Amino acid sequence: MPVPGQAMPSGDTALWVRHSPERIQAALVTLHGGPAADHHPVRPWQLSALRMRPVARIAASAVPLETTLLGQVRYRQRGWNEGAAEVDTLWALSELNRLTGDVPVVLLGYAMGARAALRAAVHPQVLGVVALAPWLPKKERVSPLSGRSILIMHGDSVPPTDTEPMDYVQQARAAGARAGALVVHGGGPRMLHRAGVWQDLAARAVGQVLRPDNGEFSPVSQAWSSDRPLVI
C-alpha cells in the first residue's frame, strides 16, 4: 500500500479535488470506468468519465458539503491494465490522507472504477463502497472488509464472464462487511436506461454509508439485510 503523503511514481497527482471545504470531516471519491486493457492516457471527455458526471453530481447532494471533500481518482491510463487502476486508487487515498488526515471515505465507482473501489476498500479510511455496474471477473478476490458497507447495483443481466453480484456479496459478508445488491430492472451496464433511478439510488447509498445510524428505511437498507438481490 502506498505510504501516506508519498507522491506517485510518475510525479503526478492521483486525486483530483473538486470541492474542499474549510473543515473536512469526510470525503466522497468517485471512480469512472474503463476497458480491461488500454495504456493511453485518460481524457476528461472520454465516455466512461462523462457517464459518471451526473451520478457524482446527484451523489454530492446526499452529503453535507460544508464538511465533505469531493474528489475523483485520476488514473494514469485508461484501462485496468493488470491492476494499475487499483494502484492509482490507493495512491489517491494516500494523497487524501495527506490533505485531510484520517477522515472516513466513501468510494463511488462505476464498472472498472467499481472494481478498483472494491479492491481499495482494504484502505483503513474507507468506510464503504457503492459499486455501480461493477466489472467483477470470475474468481475476483475479496479484500478484508471488516466494518465496511458495500452496495452493488447492476442491471438485469450479468456477463457470463463475470462473478454473480450476489456471490460477491456473500463473500463480502463472510469477510466482515455489511453488503447487499440492488438490481435496476431494465437497466443496462451503461446506466442509460432509467438513469434517474441509478442516480437516486447511488445518492441514497452514499448517504447511508456515510451516516449508517440515521435510521432511514430504504431499498439500500433492505438490500443490506436481504439474502437475495432486491429488484427496483
From TrEMBL:
Origin superkingdom: Bacteria
UniProt keyword terms in alphabetical order: Hydrolase
Gene Ontology MF, one: hydrolase activity
Keyword Hydrolase set for record: yes
Cited SUPFAM superfamilies: alpha/beta-Hydrolases
Protein name, UniProt field: Alpha/beta hydrolase
Annotated source species: Streptomyces liliiviolaceus
